[in-house]
Amino acid sequence: MAEDCINQAATLAGIAEKPCVTAGLHIHGFHDQAEKFGTLAMYGSDAPAIQELIHTDNSLGAPLHPALPYCGAEVIWATRYEMARTLEDVLARRTRALPLNARAAIAMAPRVAELMANELGRDNAWKAEQTGTFMELAQGYLC
Amino acid sequence: MVIIGGGATGVGCAVDAASRGYDVLLLEQSDFGKGTSSRSTKLVHGGVRYLEQGNIALVLDALKERGILRRNAPHLIHDLAFVVPNYHWWEAPFYGLGLKVYNLLAGKYGFGPSEILSREQTLQRLPTIKTEGLRGGVVYYDGQFDDARLLINLATTRCISTALVC
Lengths: 143, 166
Prior knowledge:
The complex is a heterodimer.
Chain A: H1 2-13, H2 47-56, H3 72-81, H4 87-94, H5 97-100, H6 102-120, H7 124-139
Helix pairs in contact in A: 2-3, 3-6, 6-7
Chain B: E1 2-4, H1 8-20, E2 25-27, E3 43-44, H2 48-52, H3 56-72, E4 78-86, H4 91-106, E5 115-117, H5 119-125, E6 136-144, H6 147-155, E7 164-165
Parallel strand pairs in B: 1-2, 2-7
Antiparallel strand pairs in B: 3-6, 4-6, 5-6
Helix pairs in contact in B: 1-6
């Protein structure tokens, strides 16, 4: 679909046509044996860098909630390298805590806000605002 | 090229355009995949139901894209077994043959051969299924992935670093 779309855009704009090369393009994180990274498998080739974060600060390796496979290092990673800017970005999409287990996501929220605030240089008011907004959103996922 | 929206379509187009060598600006108002693109079925499928509708061209295309995606992002795309339970005599040959064709159409991009299951094998795989009248089943394979994670990995794919993401 992207190939057709970009072809069409180039034609309409009358700019030089260039061939699509994505059929052989490795997507970021490409790794043949990602399973060996355990709960960090989905990060593929980024997993060793996240393990390194844990290595420098062991507290980042502890699960943020016993019911979910996510740790603090992933919050740091998402904020530093994956453009996560809100609590929802980290809890709903960089990790899937919210759709998988909304109660656990709510319980994790204050700690995640703390980690993100440190990373982004935000104050207590930001943490409170983010946590409040997230709690409101999460209510819709509880039954 | 200016691309408005950082969902699956926008980010996919940005990767396509940037990797070709075009200058790209991607605009997103909140977060990648905040709407539909993080709420998909999490399936990378070849469109098995379109096969039943006879749309072979679409199925061929989707099966090929499914295979390319697994080849280019093996850390995110995994095989998932699906079982179609059979309650009528004609279902085993019908789905058995149909899903055999589905796998054949995938060619070198196949995810694994489909198989006809006995009643016992079906119950083993689906222990909570309705047993009354159950004759057996057919197992076939499609792909499963985390939609938001693939999107983030697309947005951080190397070629994109030359594109500007706001």
